[in-house]
Amino acid sequence: MKIGDIVETIDDAITGTVIRVSGTTITVEDANGFEFQFEDNELMLISSKKILDNAIYDTDIETVKKEKEIPKRRASQSVKPKERHAPKFEVDLHIHQLTDSTKGMTNFDMMNLQLDTARRQLEFAIRKRIPKMVFIHGVGEGVLRQELETLLGRYSNVQFYDADYKTYGIGATEVRIFQNIEP
């Protein structure tokens, strides 16, 4: 490696220009002007530069010209019609998502944690005027699903039904929140 070469470290995400070579020790300056010293076996050569008349020229100018000539296709995010109206607010009620450990918790405690989370998230969605949300409860024996439906039934401004089968399977409930109804 020689002064002016563009190098990158093998183990770190540091890229820079070689500014000094002293035996096997190479000093690299990054884009922010910081200097780092590395052994030559810790660096990869990215680009070799030639210094001519105080101007820096890339050794492979033809490749750069060809890249510039090729029109780049702009990536556009296409949203499928069905996904436009899909709820973006999802709440996973699986117990391992809500707590680090269930040690010492009874089934009753776990159910209460899940239902409290569902109630808090529903209240948040109502306050923030989020029109749709999905509660992911899983399949299991259906106890959490029944309790969730009981909880949702207490709200006059919500409508709930099975969430999209293709996306969630049968273990999720979608909730539609009507905002114009006075509580």
Task: Explain what the structure shows.
With 183 residues, the chain is α+β, with helices and mostly antiparallel strands. It has helices at 61-69, 81-84, 95-98, 107-127, 143-153, 165-168, and strands spanning 6-9, 15-22, 25-30, 35-39, 43-47, 49-52, 55-58, 89-92, 132-136, 158-162, 172-177. The strands form three sheets. It has a five-stranded antiparallel β-sheet with strand order 4-3-2-1-5, with no helix packed on it. β3 and β4 (35-39) form a beta hairpin. α4 (107-127) packs parallel to α5 (143-153). The model is unreliable at 50-56 (pLDDT under 50).
Q: Point out poorly predicted stretches.
A: 50-56
Instruction: Please tell me the overall pLDDT.
Output: 81
Overall spatial form: elongated
What's the number of extended β-strand segments? 11
Percent strand = 25-35%
Give the count of helical stretches: 6
Helical percentage = 25-40%
Rg value: 29 Å
For the largest sheet, list the strands in their spatial order: 4-3-2-1-5
The end-to-end distance, rounded to whole angstroms, is 73 Å
Sheet bearing the most strands, described?
Answer: 5 strands, antiparallel
Query: Which H/E pattern describes the elements?
Result: EEEEEEEHHEHHEHEHE
Structural category is alpha+beta
Assembly type of the chains comes to single chain
